[in-house]
Design a protein that fits this description.
Elements (H helix, E strand, L loop, with lengths): L1 H6 L16 E3 L3 E3 L2 H6 L5 E4 L9 E3 L19 E3 L4 E3 L6 E3 L22 E4 L6 H9 L6 E7 L4 H17 L5 E7 L2 E6 L7 E6 L6 H8 L37 E2 H14 L17 H12 L8 E7 L22 H5 L6 H18 L2 E7 L6 H10 L4 E4 L5 H11 L9 E10 L3 E7 L3 E2 L19 E7 L5 E7 L14 E11 L5 E13 L5 H6 L3 H18 L5 H16 L19 H10 L10 H13 L2 H8 L2 E6 L2 E5 L12 E5 L3 E6 L1 H8 L9 H19 L6 E6 L6 H4 L28 H12 L3
Parallel strand pairs: 2-23, 4-8, 9-10, 9-14, 14-15, 15-16, 27-28
Antiparallel strand pairs: 1-3, 3-21, 5-6, 6-7, 8-23, 10-11, 10-13, 11-12, 17-20, 17-22, 18-21, 19-20, 22-23, 24-25, 24-26, 26-27
Helix pairs in contact: 4-6, 4-11, 5-7, 7-9, 9-10, 10-16, 13-15, 13-17, 14-21
């Protein structure tokens, strides 16, 4: 069985685009009918959706959607039954009959609107404003400009501050001219720069030691909270009397602090030239006094004065831990180390819970305002990503962790946010996701960069996973690659189990409202159907519809959540027990005969995924700081299935003279003296030279004209690594190493230890051994077979 497993690394017959036109992947594509059957399936019924994934075939419709009558309110879709003669459509989700409105009068079998084309299960609506007056007003009030509020840490050494300044200058050059820019710098105190006051530099200073409320911040700045300015009437979201076209207040206005990039580029560059490291003295044996929490409060408070519906990002560049004020994670005394996983387990991290509570409240404020927090943390020690995780994840922010502001991981990732064209991330604002589904399905919750809007209803399940108790979620920031995992509960009502012919299909509709990078509001509607299966009678249809990649990723996200929420949760045991149950339910075997055990191809690489998940940084937190663990989990929760699979089980390519580059087994046996290996572990990309290759390279053979082939062999993995790095955010760390070198650990840590120091006598010359007592995949699978067939 392990041999079968080892061969199936490529996912077999996956099409060019595994997510399909809808960007939805499910753990099970055939659903069991009852709760009992679903629990026997072991793997939860879940869907991973990329709500605004770029798709070349996407149909954009220039009118408003047609909705079913409340409380259903589903949008007309290709699965609706249409009676052309009577001008009626029947909603597939609630079976209500709806009349077509007058402007659909021309509808017929040969003339159907775009949303009914059978291949258009995903469409996007770009509705114009309702009437001519509104259209004119909309044209006059230019699209609300996106806001970028930079929050810079100045408790840095000169060299690091220099890197920050050059990154900022490059960013300012890439920003669209109409984008609004603001600047906050912080060290021991917080400095908010009034960019609109160009005669000399004017700064508002906030003390870093105590928490300040949004109202106090606005009061000190002479601003009003959005929407409660005296005499401001009218519906929310529309320009009020006396407002400027860009939705900002005039005199007592945010415009003093947030200026269009084209107007303030000179002022900002001058400010950056003068910016010094924090001048507050640091006593010997102490850390710098850094008030990250207050700085982020000030930034969020300032944005609170913007019009509702303005897309804004707080981009925080942090170079060390917060040591005073709210959000503090460690004291100033260097003798107190920053908390580790062990401290968190033993409840010996005195500041942790208080800091998490502070960022939780900040997250609520930002979600309420609809604004995003992005975090770029660059330091050798931890900066508090574990505490800030809640604010970044709830608002859909981006996060990058590097060891210096001069490191390519930071520099290239930071640049990517502002690029447009091919390299653009497609950063969008103000998203909400609503889900509608057939009546026997309930929604347990969602894991990923979103916040529950607490919109309870008949579709909410009793058990909650992640952001639950709701059928709609807020996503303040989302981009083309953002992915959410939604967990479903199957609970057939009494009515549906009555005799008669039950509906063989189930339907789920995802509605995503969002403001695209150009500032227009769009509605993306994806409707999918899957079939119900009576699982007790035939497991074959369930097996046919199993997606092992999605299942592995969903389990990884689920146990990461459980490890954070439950104190004594043993992830490895939980995974082992689930895998044994799954194999004994869906494997083919004779009782008590391990040799007879086989798995259907749809399950065949699942045990290998579980083997690598058990050893991954998501489960084994030993040797990672809480910041790194939080960072890995945030990316696992927001990336596509394809990317998340690489995080769990890296891919390995082998380059040699006598064959083209080929996928290699993720096994220590793949190491050989005359091969180059390219490992893609998502967060890092490793180019590993075998011993002989490294010796030839050190002798400079690649520079001699007769060894052209060797030069090409050395260059090929470099080119492939650049292709991987170019398309990925955050930019992965590139590690170039040689066999037996110190950096070779980046590769060895990921390989299956089929040869360890105990079996060193059997190893082929030129290969390697791994010094570990971990079991190998072979042993793991033998144990699995033995336990799965037990009667």
């Amino acid at each position: 069985m392990a041999a079968d497993l080892a061969g199936g690394g490529g996912g077999g017959a996956a099409a060019a685009d595994p997510d399909g036109p809808d960007g939805v992947r499910m753990t099970w594509n055939a659903w069991p009918r009852s709760k009992v059957e679903a629990s026997k399936c072991v793997i939860p019924v879940a869907a991973c959706i990329a709500p605004i994934r770029a798709s070349p075939s996407l149909l954009v419709l220039p009118y408003a959607p047609l909705r079913c009558k409340p409380p259903c309110a589903a949008v007309l879709n290709p699965f609706a039954r249409v009676d052309f003669a009577a001008r009626i459509w029947i909603c597939p989700i609630c079976f209500s009959r709806n009349h077509f409105p007058p402007h659909y009068a021309a509808i017929s079998e040969t003339n159907v609107p775009g949303e009914l084309y059978p291949q258009c299960t995903t469409v996007e609506y770009a509705p114009p404003p309702h009437d001519a007056a509104a259209a004119a007003a909309a044209a006059a009030a230019a699209v609300p400009a996106p806001i970028f509020l930079f929050v810079l840490d100045t408790c840095l050494i000169e060299e690091e501050l220099g890197f920050v300044k050059s990154a900022m200058r490059r960013a300012l050059g890439l920003l669209p001219d109409h984008a609004l820019v603001g600047l906050v710098t912080f060290g021991t105190q917080v400095h908010l720069h009034e960019l609109g006051f160009s005669d000399l530099s004017k700064i508002y200073v906030f003390r870093g030691t105590k928490e300040i409320s949004k109202e106090q911040i606005l009061d000190q700045l002479g601003l009003f909270s959005a929407g409660i300015r005296p005499g401001a009437a009218g519906p929310p979201g529309y320009p009020k009397a006396g407002l400027q076209a860009n939705g900002l207040h005039p005199s007592g206005s945010v415009n003093r602090f947030l200026l269009p990039a084209s107007d303030c580029e000179y002022t900002l560059n001058a400010l950056l030239d003068e910016l010094q490291t924090d001048q507050w003295p640091v006593e010997a044996g102490n850390r710098s006094r850094r008030c990250t929490g207050v700085a982020l409060s000030v930034a969020a408070g300032l944005l609170g004065a913007c019009m509702p519906g303005t897309g804004a990002r707080i981009i925080a560049l942090v170079g060390g831990p917060c040591t005073e004020g709210p959000g503090m994670i460690v004291s100033k005394d260097l003798s107190e180390p920053v908390r580790s996983h062990k401290d968190l387990d033993k409840d010996a991290a005195p500041h942790f819970h208080k800091a998490v509570k502070f960022y939780d409240n900040l997250a609520k404020q930002l979600v309420n305002q609809g604004h995003v927090l992005d975090l770029f943390a660059s330091a050798l020690d931890q900066v508090g990503v574990a505490e800030m995780k809640v604010a970044v994840e709830r608002t859909g922010g981006l996060v990058v962790l590097a060891e210096s502001f001069g490191h390519p991981v930071f520099k290239d990732s930071f640049k990517r946010i502002f690029e447009d064209g091919e390299q653009s991330l497609g950063l969008s604002f103000n998203g909400t996701l609503e889900i509608n589904c057939s009546k026997d399905i309930k929604i347990q919750g969602a894991i990923g960069p979103c916040t529950s809007l607490e919109k309870k209803g008949a579709l909410c399940a009793d058990t909650v996973i992640g952001q639950g108790n709701t059928t709609s979620w807020r996503m303040c920031g989302l981009d083309r690659s953002t992915c959410l995992t939604v967990f479903f509960d199957i609970s057939p009502s009494e009515r549906s189990s009555q005799p008669g012919i039950p509906n063989p299909q189930l339907y789920i509709q995802f509605l995503t409202n969002y403001q695209n990078p150009e500032g227009q509001m769009r509605l993306r509607v994806t409707t999918i159907t899957r079939k119900w299966v009576d699982g007790s009678a035939n497991t074959e249809e369930l097996v046919e519809g199993f997606d092992q990649e999605t299942a592995a990723v969903v389990l990884a996200r689920y146990i990461s959540l459980k490890m954070e929420m439950e104190e004594e949760f043993d992830a490895t045991r939980w995974l082992d027990r689930s895998l044994i149950r799954l194999c004994s339910r869906f494997g083919d075997y004779r009782k008590d005969d391990p040799a007879s055990f086989t798995l259907h191809p749809n399950f065949s690489i699942f045990p290998q995924f579980m083997f690598n998940l058990r050893r991954s940084q998501f489960v084994q937190v030993f040797n990672n700081s809480p910041d790194e663990t939080a960072y890995f989990r945030m990316l696992l929760n927001r990336e596509s299935i394809t990317n998340s699979v690489v995080m769990i089980q890296p891919s390995l390519l082998s380059y040699s003279f006598n064959s083209p580059p080929a996928p290699a087994l993720l096994d220590v046996a793949s190491i050989s003296a005359d091969h180059i290996l390219l490992l893609d572990a998502y967060f890092s990309v490793v180019i590993f030279h075998g011993m002989t290759i490294a010796q030839w390279r050190n002798m400079g053979y690649q520079n001699q004209p007769e060894h052209q082939a060797f030069a090409q062999l050395l260059q090929a993995p470099q080119d492939d690594a650049q292709i991987i790095i170019r398309d990925r955010f955050p930019v992965p760390r590139l590690v170039i190493c040689d066999q037996h070198g110190s950096q070779a650990r980046f590769l060895l840590a990921k390989l299956n230890p089929s040869a360890t120091y105990n079996s060193a006598h059997e190893v082929a010359p030129g290969s390697d051994v791994i010094f570990t007592d971990d079991v190998s995949l072979q042993v793991f699978c033998e144990h699995l077979q033995r336990l799965a067939v037990q009667s």
